[in-house]
User: Fold these one by one.
Assistant:
Number 1:
Amino acid sequence: MPQNPELNLRKKEPLMKKKALVAGALGVIGRSLIQELERQGDWEVVGISRRIPDFETSSIYLSLDLLDREACENQLRGLKDITHLFYCAFQPRSSWAEHTAPNLAMLVHCVETMNTASAELQHVQLIEGNKWYGSHLGPFRTPAREDDPPHMAPNFYVEQEHWLRNFHAQAPDADAGWNWSALRPHTVCGFSLNSPMNLSTCLAVYALIAKELGLPLRFPGKPGAWESIYQVCDSRHLAKAMIWCATDENAANEVFNITNGDYFRWKNIWGRIAEFFEMEPGEVQTIPLTEFMADKEPLWEKLCEKHGLQKIPYSEIAAWPFADYVFGSEWDVMTDTLKLRLHGFHECLRSDEMFVRIFQEFREQKVIP
């Protein structure tokens, strides 16, 4: 006797609702995260940014200064169904010591407000960095592991993590659901507009100006940086790791280093970068880009006009002090990413291929010729 096909239908479980709040939504990290959340298709997304999006998006954006506690409470308390908070906001200051107070305050305002507003909150994901280990100060123990102690204060990454750990432990509803995680990437690279602390745009603008001046693509950093081991993290790769941390129970209340998964020396990939820009690769010629690129705005504007590029202010396309910092690291910069893989996140990519892909995306979006 034929079976009734209806008897074989299995009751489908309802999809678990996921609604993300992304703080710092239009930076290099936040932009890639929102695009990845939208690509996955099962997320609602609300972004916090003081700018409006420059790309097509289905997400909702709030213009909000996280330093303003009252504004945070007024605009965020209505978000009663946020399940995941991704915190990648940052406000720079003129010195490292001055970073701590405002960046800690922004995190506190955001997390405390959402802890009160949303009974649905499941996870808070925090972005830190390798400066936790003192990678910006000089030689440090490598490869750095997550349980290595931080350098001497001040360090706002340390203050943020300690506060989040303590707040989670003390929050009245902590046992009812939400947990946290932290990721420590290094030199995040990706496509973003008006985010000058992006090594990809610094490299591209430097290369194109050198090319226009008829120069080879010389390495502008220090000899030690040319030879030392370095690492970077693709923003798309980071976005996938952030979502994994926020949704996999193996990541609950854990800290992970995150990079592309490889190490390189600038001298070994410099030729690949030069090849993309159709330039002859040069050797080391140390110049402070902060000084030598200061007078290049007219030349860059001429290039933009000549090739019909997007009109991005020169001051907002590349942060030369940041480039000088990266190319001035005359010591190995290496973190151990084994913990992340042991806990279940296995994706990786080659850094030289990442640079080429990002440069191509800049070209397609008419940011560079």
Number 2:
Amino acid sequence: MIDELVDPGTFAVHPAGAPWGVLSAIGNTPLVPLEKVFEDAPFRLFGKLEMLNPGGSIKDRAAVRMLMEGREQGRIGPRTTVIESSSGNLGIGLAQACLRLGIRFVCVVDTCITPSNLAVLKAYGVQVEMVEQPHRPGGSLLEARIARVQALCEELPDSIWINQYANEMNAMAHRQTMSEIDHAMDGEIDYLFVATSTCGTLRGCSEYVRSHGMRTRIVAVDAVGSVIFGQTPQKRLIPGHGASRMPELYYPGLEDEHVHVTDRECVEGCLRLLRTEAIFAGGSSGAVISAIEKYRAQIRPGASCAAVLCDRGDRYLETIYSDSWQREHLGTGFSA
């Protein structure tokens, strides 16, 4: 329930009688054993099914938490326009929450957004601003999106950039994610595998682990070509995994270790998860599965591991789960 998303003493519970509706279903997602994906492994693995949030991804948590804080602080009112840059899931989470709460929302996207995500945003009635090219030579589409957000904030009266890359409520939301995993596993978590992008999930989970003195080792999963752990930026095909600019939410030491995963390995991980566990998940979930495969020799026998599975696969039907897309971009097709 939405009340349980709020940590007493760190964030006020929403006002009594507020029109939360479907938003009250955010959180408390299932943690299920993954018994077949690494059938011969000497460790136990559990998957946190964040795709079962009502907006279809883990980003529902951050969307509501950031809006709650903005309303509590008086920065978001009945005439405010919320503006955000998103490759899909955070935009959809905000679209759902803003529509339910009666807040106008403008989402700035770029040409890498999947057709399914774009269609969902439009179904929610969101004003979509499409960025088609970098705003400077050698720049990234993400930089261009942020520049467009900033321009819109100057153009539109009473507007606010919610800024998922720097908003600490993004990270705060995921202390609750980790709390749910902690309680479901009775604190017996040796390794947590979490994908990175804005680093909200990584930071929230990590700070919960540190503040509770848990033994859990945090393994961050990043994309090859992402700058978060010092790689040279390069083109990436899977939206919502990795970053072309350093997120303000990140600071060194959030992770104990990190693993880089290629686009091809993302696809392979998604199909492996689907074939073995019948879990139809998105790209970052496939990255997590492939990262566990690469890291598995370092997992001690008998360990208990948790993997955060961020979103569902139906938004990737034209990409990850498309034979023709696989052949065009990866040079071969994979039969699901």
Number 3:
Amino acid sequence: MLNQEKILLDLQQALEKVTLSDLENLQIKYLGRNGLVNDLFQKIKEVSPAEKKAYGESINRLKEKVTALILAKKEELVTKEDNAEKIDVTLPGKNYPQGSLHLITQGINEISQIFEKIGFIRMSYPEVEWEYFSFASLNMPADHPARDDFETSFIDFPEHSEYGKMVLTPHTSSGQVREMWRLGKPPIRMINISKTYRPNYDATHTPMFYQFEGLCVDKGINITHLKGTIDYFAKAYFGEDVQTRLRPHHFQFTEPSFEVDVTCTVCRGKCEVDGKKCKVCKSGWLELGGTGMVHPNVLKEGKIDSGIYTGWAFGFGIERVIMMKYGINDIRYYYSGDIRFLEQF
């Protein structure tokens, strides 16, 4: 015969961890037709006549206790479920913070897409370069100031018998002759985006920075094609209301050479903001970078006949054009890792 106290104890333990969905199975186990309590009633015939009354009363009390415990647990679980947070699957999900591409990467992608639309192929040339490609092939003599170690980072490595010392490339222009060699002959339409290195560090310079180089060589190329391309880029990147101008300048690898100015992106060429003189431009213009017609000596180094072909090139700093677009006043913010700055973009 089953022990009544053990049945009650086992039930109490089972109720401690039961769920509402499992409670019905527990009720059948104890109170069902073939349950433990009914099993005890079936065994009354084994009890002596003198003990049957007391035995029957004890089984009834057990049944009442079992029933009361199960009902109490059911009320507890139903109340708990009613008070639980309801999930409405039709509601929109929660907005969680998302990461994004770095501001420099965004700029590189945008610039690449702008030039891709007019047939320029994106290239990338070595960040560790030979002196020849960085200087000599670009019409820079051995005594040119840019070849001084105050301006260029030289690498402690044996000199090449033909190409000279090894350097961290100071500008993307080092890819010009390499691209001419790669294609062999025009037409050439290249956009070269890469890291460049110069030993400077202040609000507008960092030892490592990004440049993008444009190179176009073909028959009949002239300054009007150069100006049209720069106008196209400026309007696509800064806005349709931005104008450009060319100022005569000197670069060793272009002739004629120009500095490119664009309408100030802060005052939009008005020279004033809220009735005060613009502190960014002071003249309505901002300097974008350098450009010009490719020097015949550079074409010669690229094994291209300058009597048949002409071309233009430009070199702009990516950090600088981003600064001009968004009004950033310190290039070092890009590399600070400060999430408060980066998440604005």
Number 4:
Amino acid sequence: MNASNESKPLRGALQGKTALVTGASRGLGRSIAMACAESGAKVVLLGRVPSTLEAVAAEIRQGGGEACCFPCDLSDIEEIPRNYEQILSLAGEVNVLINVAGKNFRVAAVDFPLDEWRSILDLNVTAPFVLSQCFAKPLIAAGKPGKIVNIASLMTAAARPMIPAYSASKGAIGLLTKALAVEWAQYRINVNAVGPGYFKTELTRPLWEDRAFDEWVLEKTPMKRWGEPSDLVGAVVFLASSAADFITGQVLYVDGGWLAHI
């Protein structure tokens, strides 16, 4: 699993838990899934492409972890409840839900196509909401606790040109996190979010290979570097663990000081 090089998990923090991680086949989702496995969780990997999910699962198993795959397309909102029932049949009870899957599209707001707007809001906001409903219902019925960790963004608290739908969706995730946290605290279901700063992944390669953009990120980030996936996973595992039992409704920014810098 090579997690010692890739992640900084809290060893044993999720022992005995089953964690469902969306967007688990690549990028931050993959790193989060592997960190959850090293922290002791059985991991359900959710993504669109079976072959890439299986590759991640194989790496987890090679490192002594436990993982199973559930390929599906979260943009098909109506199928999410049915898919979740199948996940429960496959994996048993799910104690931790980590909503990572999302998308972006870059066009000036004045020309932004409505179909892309709807697609981004569906995947980035509606899908996590429906999954959270599916996750919470059986736990509430059984009187059992759970943890939800949403992946927010710097755009939960700030904005940049050319990404109006993404910014709107991540702003919504921030307040959805608070809304669910307030409503479900009585059921011992904690809902928090992690807001990554600028991280080096394959998905962000066009950004960090753009010299001007790279220089802007380094200038704006007090730590003077891009984040690596290993910088993020500890915060996610912490919020999913019992160490965060009295933390709910929070957005924890892991950004090298980006938001704090005027």
